[in-house]
Amino acid sequence: MSLNPDRVLVHDREMKTLMNLDNLTHTDQLAEFLSGTQAVAFSVLSDPATRYAWIQATLIRFRYLTLTRADQGLVIRVLMRVSGYSRQQVTRLIAQYRKTGTVTRRPRTVAGFALKVTAADIRLLAAMDERHDTPCGPAIKKLCERALRIFGQTEYERLASISVSHLYNLRKSVPYARRRRHFEKTRPRQIPIGERRKPRPDGQPGYLRIDTVHQGDLDGKKGVYHVNAVDEVTQFEVVCTVERISEQYLLPVLEQLLEAFPFRVLGFHSDNGSEYINKRVAELLEKLFIEFTKSRSRQSNDNALAESKNGAVVRKFFGYSHIPSRFAARIHRFNQEHLNPYLNYHRPCFFPETHTDAKGKQRKRYRYETMMTPYDKLKSLPAAQTYLKPGITFAILDALADALSDNQAADRLQKARQKLFQTLREPGLKSG
Q1: Engineered SS bond to 215: which of 24, 68, 223, 278, CB 3.0-4.6 Å?
Q2: 19: Cβ–Cβ under 8 A, 6 or more apart, which residues?
Q3: pLDDT in tens, 146-182
Q4: For the chain, what are the domain ranges?
Q5: β-pair partners for 230
Q6: For 40-70, how does the pLDDT look when each residue is reduced to its tens digit (9 = 90+)?
């Protein structure tokens, strides 16, 4: 039942009569009203002016300023229940009544804080940032001050008077973003392992390019990983296979890989993968006095030799299908016994010749006359014997190279690969 606040009715359940709240003149009656012994039927109207008028009439009727502190508390609680205002709001209205004798509503006439900087100023700041490539806050403020004081550009008056911190706030505002969007390139994370540059072998063997080839996933299970290392000058290549590329599996294989090359390894170049860019690999190379370099950003040719061999050798021999990781040891033996000897002693490779034209542009040419096996390339280098490891001679290597003809080595390789893939396809076969 909605009633006018000037005519709030209270139903006395015991006497079964309707009482008018305006007829209550004693604080004892207010206490009964608050204690709930009299049923209350009223609703607070949404019109603030009507509420204020009823509050003023109630304060006058009960002579609020002459009441004791306890009775004033009763009146405040009645005003809160009937008007729906909080205690803080009722206290503020009573303070107004105490000061002026009235309770009047004061309409809001000020639309918040006045803006010191307008949307036009923000667009002017965006244009200034774009013109000067977004300098720091103090620099842009100084430019605004110079534009105003030295060059008489009065449109910069407000920008010249605000603080540097507020300039940064304006750069985050919506009008600034609509006028200009500024993007910064992702800053690369610097890892102090390895030197970021292209290797410089200067015609000397022993500078390896290394990369990893993953043999696919299947049903959430990882396949084997092939570690492919190629010498830049001779294209002498060693392929190893591991079950995982974690330190536990990779470090022993890296030691075998470095040992498999007949010449001294002087450089080790990889991409930025974490399997190589870590402290354990760096410690291993440092112990062997091997130079550690890594590819540069946006320089795809830094490790192009190893990546080209990934496609021409690894993918050609092992394909792209998933090979379960449990067969890593079996494939690794196949690489050592068949694949690596064939690649280095029986498979011819092109070797580039760099020619520089009159304009200084360099072009690489791959002449058929220079095509040879990696081992023949090693033997053709000036003072080739000096590059070999202690205990290794060309007589020993010649015996390995001449043990089989190229066709015999290829046939032996194909038979071994066919047998290998047959065993890989057998269901339930364990590694080993």
Answers
A1: 223
A2: 9, 10, 11, 12, 38
A3: 989 988 899 999 999 988 899 999 988 888 888 876 5
A4: 5-100, 119-179, 202-425
A5: 209, 237
A6: 444 555 678 888 888 898 898 888 898 899 8
CB under 8 A, 24+ apart: contacts of 81-88? 81/34, 81/40, 82/5, 82/8, 82/21, 82/42, 82/44, 82/54, 83/5, 83/44, 83/51, 83/54, 83/55, 84/44, 84/51, 85/51
The owner of tokens 């206290």 is: 91
Tell me the H-state helices in 137-288: 137-149, 157-161, 164-171, 174-179, 247-260, 279-287
Q: How far apart are CA 294 and CA 268, in angstroms?
A: 8
Q: At what angle do helices 48-61 and 87-100 cross, to 10 degrees?
A: 60
To which residue do tokens 């039942």 refer?
1
Q: Determine the pLDDT at residue 92.
A: 92
Q: Which fold has domain 202-425?
A: Nucleotidyltransferase; domain 5 (3.30.420)
The predicted pLDDT at position 78 comes to: 86
Angle of CA points 286, 289, 291, to nearest 5°: 80
pLDDT of 209 reads: 94
Residues of the chain below pLDDT 70: 1-24, 36-46, 108-114, 181-190, 426-432
